[in-house]
Design a protein that fits this description.
This is 1,3-beta-glucanosyltransferase. This protein is 30% helix and 9% strand. With 664 residues, the protein is of the alpha/beta class.
Length: 664
């Protein structure tokens, strides 16, 4: 039982900790907010490897956080793996996760763009795996799919994918986890791509810009960060750096963090993600392991990575931003770019090739890692540095390509804060209800076990006859007013059914006749008992016990009878072998062998007085004994009643507790 309680408590604790120990992040205008209304800024690290390894399935590595990050970015996850350990460890450390929905096998192919049912199934399977975690920060529907003007037509499919994924998210009842895009570091492409994905009614939820222009001790203007800031000045959705960290100067000083999280950009930019955690051949790693490119064992800061420099920068940069209560978001999206023959290739009003799938329809069971055609376009690397990364475009299946139909019922606009409860608050309430239901069920189970154990225990013996089941049979009590009344004036009381099977006449037949009185009993009827048989036979044999029994007066009023002389009590002969029960209806005296009485002993044996005074004295003594017995029986009955009342109170309390638990 104790093991069961510990198990239930542990699972309840782990469940509540996993889902409710960290605030959710929501969007209002161009800003990210905690559920308490304070603004959220990203201090993140790209967490992964160039190979397709699910780093979120390695719980031991997820417990390390000396750097001070609050966000990590992952480029690949295996939807068949368990991620509870890492997500719980990150939640306990206050770390959020930016999850890629695509992979090298499902990403939109820039060379031959499309948006298919196979890709949809892979993307939504990742969403299903991470939508329930409170610290899932956002989903990335594509990374550097468009890397120059010539591939700008692929943006049409990126925007269609984001719209379908948001419809799926809302149809499944998930909280409004943002769905966005992260773009390549191409100066001539950025303003067109950013404005196209953010314009219109079906905009993405956020835009992440990869940028490696700030190297060494550069500046806000020299690095081009000022141009990035100006290009996004008319944005109505959040924007942040999804990859930063030029490595031409080593160790990397990370002086750009002061501009991003400081006065230059913090009113519009929402932070940055540093590339990357693991040291690989591209020489961007903050830490290394004993085996190159493998996250196993204890990590060691790389001399060239600038681990301590980044930790120092983040330790001094704590922007507070604007509370949601003081912020009025800009609801006007940027203007959509127009297509040109030698420039941007998509008109802003072009129909999106969405799949028009029902949001809660049954999906195919293909895994996110299901094989399709081999990638025909290599994963794009850092545009300015040529370093490789894990995520890139891949060849897509050619079946079930999305059409150009628009679903006007879907809303792609970014959610804004309002007067109603936030999604995070609703999720918190739901978690509280679930925890309460589990607790109530556990309490009800424990009460049920306790009650069953009590039912299996031996019942209390509440009757003087030693009955094991039920209540004792009703026994008439003497009227308290009759105790002081002479025997001849007692009122008749109802007689109990005699349970004795060994007697020939019933006990009630004895008491129904007024002839059976002390004065009419002869020597044979009296036997060898000095006590008159009228008192002895008042209690049936089956009711004899160690406690005094209630005397049973005759059923009719006793009438005075002529007094008969009482002879000397006879002495049994020495050869007596009678074994009969000495009952009043037996005529044979002395049923049990008696010792022989000598003449000397017989002379010492007192004779019963034959006078009326002695007989009256005998009756008074017998009446006194009867009254004493009645008093004792009354006290015993009173004690039994008190005990029964206590048992009934306990029974009522348990029933009320059980009913209350069932109502809960």
């Amino acid at each position: 039982m104790r093991v069961l309680r510990i198990w239930a408590a542990a699972h309840l604790y782990s469940f509540v900790t996993l889902v409710a120990c960290i605030s959710t992040i929501s969007i209002s205008g161009t800003k990210f907010y905690y559920s308490d209304g304070s603004q959220f800024y990203i201090k993140g690290v790209a967490y992964g490897a160039s190979t397709l390894v699910d780093v979120l399935s390695n719980t031991a590595q997820c417990t390390r956080d000396k750097l001070g990050v609050n966000t990590i970015r992952v480029y690949y996850v295996d939807t068949t793996a368990n991620h509870d350990g890492c997500m719980s460890a990150f939640a306990n450390a206050g770390i959020y996760v930016l999850v890629a929905l695509d992979s090298a096998y499902s990403a939109i192919n820039r060379a031959s763009p499309g948006w298919t049912s196979s890709q949809y199934n892979n993307f939504t399977s990742v969403m299903d795996a991470f939508a329930t975690y409170n610290n899932t920060f956002a989903f990335v529907a594509g990374n550097e799919v468009i890397n120059d003007i010539d591939t700008s037509s692929a943006a049409l499919y990126v925007k269609a994918a984001a719209l379908d994924l948001k419809k799926y998210r809302d149809g499944k009842g998930y909280r409004e986890i943002p769905v966005g895009y992260t773009g390549a570091d191409v100066n001539t492409l950025a303003p067109f791509l950013q404005n196209y994905l953010a314009c219109g009614s079906y905009a993405i939820d956020f835009f992440g810009q990869n940028n490696y222009a700030w190297c060494g001790q550069s500046s806000f203007t020299e690095s081009g960060y000022s141009d990035e800031y100006a290009d996004a000045s008319n944005f109505n959705i959040p924007i942040f750096f999804s990859e930063v960290g030029c490595n031409t100067v080593q160790p990397r000083p990370f002086t750009d963090q002061a501009a991003i999280l400081g006065a230059d950009m913090d009113n519009l930019w929402s932070g940055a993600i540093v590339y990357e955690w693991l040291e690989e051949a591209n020489d961007y790693g903050l830490v290394g392991y004993a085996s190159t490119g493998v996250m196993s064992g204890t990590p060691t800061p790389m001399p060239s990575g600038g681990f301590s420099n980044l930790m120092s920068q983040w330790g001094t940069l704590t922007p507070t931003g604007t509370p949601s209560s003081s912020y009025t978001p800009n609801g006007t999206p940027p203007s959509c770019p127009s297509s040109t023959a030698s420039g941007w290739g998509i008109n802003g009003n072009a129909a999106l090739p969405t799949l028009n799938k029902a949001a809660v329809s049954t999906r195919s069971t293909s895994s996110s890692t299901s094989s399709s055609t081999s990638p025909t376009a290599a994963a794009s690397g850092k545009s300015s540095t040529g370093a490789t990364k894990a995520t890139g475009s891949a060849g897509a299946a050619t079946s079930d390509t999305g059409t150009g139909n628009l679903n006007l019922n879907a809303s792609g606009s970014t959610s804004t804060s309002g007067g109603s409860l936030s999604t995070g608050a609703i999720a918190g309430i739901a978690v509280g209800i679930v925890a309460l239901v589990i607790t109530a069920a556990l309490v009800a189970f424990l009460l049920w076990r306790r009650r069953r154990k009590q039912r299996n225990s031996p019942p209390l013996d509440l009757s003087p006859e030693g009955l094991e089941v039920g209540e004792p049979p009703p026994k008439p009590e003497l009227d308290s007013t009759a105790i002081g009344v002479p025997v001849s004036q007692h009122e008749a009381q109802p007689e109990l059914q005699d349970a004795s099977a060994n007697r020939t006449p019933a006990g009630s037949e004895l008491h129904s006749s007024p002839a059976f009185t002390t004065s009419t009993l002869g020597r044979a009827e009296m036997g060898n008992s000095p006590t008159p048989q009228s008192a002895t036979n008042a209690v049936p044999t089956s009711e004899l016990s160690t406690t005094p029994a209630t005397p049973k007066p005759a059923s009719a009023q006793l009438q005075p009878q002529p007094q008969q002389p009482i002879s000397q009590r006879p002495v049994a002969p020495s050869n007596s072998t009678a074994l009969k029960a000495n009952a009043p209806w037996e005529t044979d005296p002395f049923p049990y062998p008696q010792p022989e009485v000598t003449a000397t002993q017989a002379q010492k044996t007192p004779l019963l007085s034959e006078t009326d005074d002695d007989d009256e004295l005998k009756r008074l003594e017998e009446e006194e004994r009867r009254v004493d017995a009645a008093i004792a029986e009354s006290e015993r009955i009173r004690a039994l009643k008190e005990e029964k009342t206590a048992l009934q109170a306990r029974k009522t309390a348990l029933l009320e507790a059980k009913q209350k638990a069932s109502r809960t």
